[in-house]
Amino acid sequence: MNTAAPQPNGDGGSPAYPTGPPAPATPPAGMGSTVSTGSPADTDNSSSPTGIECPISPSSPSSSTRTGSTAAPLAGVRRSLRSKLPLRSRLALLTALAVAFAVALSAVACWVITREQLRDELDKSLRNYRVNVLYLRDTLQQCPQIETAPSRDAGPSVAYVQTVNADAGRCVGTGAKPVRVSDSDVNVALGLENDVVRDGRTDGGTPVRVLTKSYVIGDSVFAVSLSRPLTETDSALDTLALVLAVVAGIGVLGAATAGLAVARAGLRPVDRLTGAVEHIARTEDLATTIPVEGRDEIARLSRSFNSMTAALASSRDRQQQLIADAGHELRTPLTSLRMNVELLVRSEETGRALPPDDRRELLASVKAQMTELAALIGDLQELSRPDAPPGSGAPRIAALHEAASAAVERARLRGKDLAITARLTSWYVPAEPSALERAVINLLDNAVKFSPPGGAVEVTLSEGVLTVRDHGPGIPSDELPHVFDRFWRSPSARSLPGSGLGLSIVARTVQRSGGEVSLRAADGGGTVAVVRLPGAPHPPPEAEPSQGGPAGGGPAFRAPEP
Question: Where is the Histidine kinase domain (predicted)?
Fold first, then answer.
């Protein structure tokens, strides 16, 4: 072949076409100067890495078994990490993983975009390359001769050139490396496509970028494949991948370190809260509080914790106060009872009988003290009974007028010299009947106890408002806020019988039923106790045993008007 490889000129036009014989070169093994021919199938087999396909259905048993077998270990790993790693380590790990994912995604996107840009530049250079017509004619005329390998001096500086015939044959230009022919190249030679750009390989296995386009010289229609090696772009991409990997690694390490520092700083209030909880559990010191800083979730948790410890401390103080007050109230009747019993025992042991009147008085005192103890214990049991949880059962319906009527009859027996009048109208309330009657009795007992001889007590019940009015000495205004406290007794009533729990039971029972109770000074002297309870003037129809509530159609309970 007497032609040299075409060289592009400076203005991008047709390449310079030097004359003269090419420098002799020794062809490498496996390369000849004849035209390579073959069928398209043979060409595809040469360019394909393998001809074996093994499709696997996603719903095949092996695939589903493999997926199910890997799900359980992954769940176990997640549970193990949650149970073994502390919270700050998990936060740091999560931060590092998030940054690693973001950096990896950015690196891959950068690499892919750079690769596509380099490929576009390479494709643009192939499209702008113009092959000299004389070079193509000489290439076609020299076929089929022995293909000579390009010499070290005559290698193409821009692209390898070869022609492709419709029968998949090729003619390799001088100084070019033979590139394997594909079906797309044959389609261009057959006129089925104008041009095609693809990745290919030389016979030696070097990856190249190939542009095949149709040419017409005289009556001959054929395709010309221009190719450039991808080693120059691949080396740049490899360098870029290495740089991105190093930068990503540094970024992940920095993110893990920053995540650990941020987790430590963010969890410092949680550490203080944990220390406070451990201190309380160790010392039972409910006075411990946590400083509240800011308005974030940690500050909200600290405030909630302080409120909880304050409520627990108040509950424990009330419990201790209840125990102390109960012990104090029990000490007086027990001491008096023990003295009376010892006097009776000493009389029996010495044989010195007590006078009948003294003995009767002593036995009556013992009986009264036992009654007082029984009443005190009953009051304590009533106060210690917990409230029923919502939805635990059907509410009981009690007749407030019947409980008030029974309490009035009992008060008349206790205060025989008092004028007790009652005006009661029907009113039904959701309450425990026995507890409601006990509360009304306590109100009337309190009025009877403080009424002067020959005094009067008025009891009225109208539209859910129960009023008990006595004409006693009244309650000073500074003592009114304490009348419903447990074991509280007015200094002027210390000498009178009672435990100081009666009005506490009244307040507790009324509040359980959704009502309210109050005491105030009456005009003209005395005290007025007012109880308001929601209810209805008629009882609701009896509920079904399985429903636990009034059947539909009955009157709805309403709150009494103030």
Answer: 325-537
**DSSP string over 250-306:** HHHHHHHHHHHHHHHHHTHHHHHHHHHHHHHHHH--TT------SSSHHHHHHHHHH
Exposed e or buried b per residue across 346-370, where buried means at least 16 C-beta atoms within 10 angstroms of its C-beta: eeeeeeeebeeeeeeebeeebeebe
Say whether the peptide bond before residue 58 is cis (omega within 30 degrees of 0). no
Supply the pLDDT for residue 492.
Answer: 57
Question: Which tokens sit at 417?
Answer: 């010299």
Which H or E element spans position 164? strand 160-164
Amino acid at 471: H
113 pLDDT more than 80: yes
pLDDT at 7 over 60: no
Return the higher-pLDDT residue of 361 and 67.
Answer: 361
450-480 as b/e, with b when 16 or more CB fall inside 10 Å? bbeeebebbbebeebbbbbbbbbebbeeeee
Name the residue among 500, 509, 529, 377 with its Cα closest to residue 438.
509
User: pLDDT band for position 469 (50/70/90)?
Assistant: very high
pLDDT at 371: 78
Q: What is the pLDDT of residues 482-492, one digit of tens each?
A: 777 766 666 55
Segment 341-369, tens digit of pLDDT: 888 888 888 878 888 888 888 888 888 77
- Return the CATH fold of 297-383: Helix Hairpins (1.10.287)
Would you place residue 82 in the very low, low, confident or very high pLDDT band (cuts 50, 70, 90)?
low
- Which pLDDT score is estimated for 542? 63
Q: HSE of 29 in the Cβ direction (CA atoms, 13 Å)?
A: 0
Please give the Cα distance from 474 to 491 (Å, whole number). Answer: 13
Instruction: List beta partners, residue 420.
Output: 457
| Gyration radius from the chain CA atoms | 53
Domain boundaries, the chain: 86-147+157-285, 297-383, 390-532
- Two tokens at 445? 């007992």
State the burial class of residue 281 (Cβ atoms within 10 Å of its Cβ: 0-12, 13-18, 19+): exposed
On whether the CB atoms of residues 40 and 156 are closer than 8 A, the answer is no
Q: Check if 297-383 and 390-532 are the same fold.
A: no
502, two tokens: 């009666």
DSSP reduced 3-state for 209? strand
CATH 3.30.565.10 is held by the domain 390-532: yes
CB 291 within 8 A of CB 124: no
For residue 45, the model assigns a pLDDT of: 39
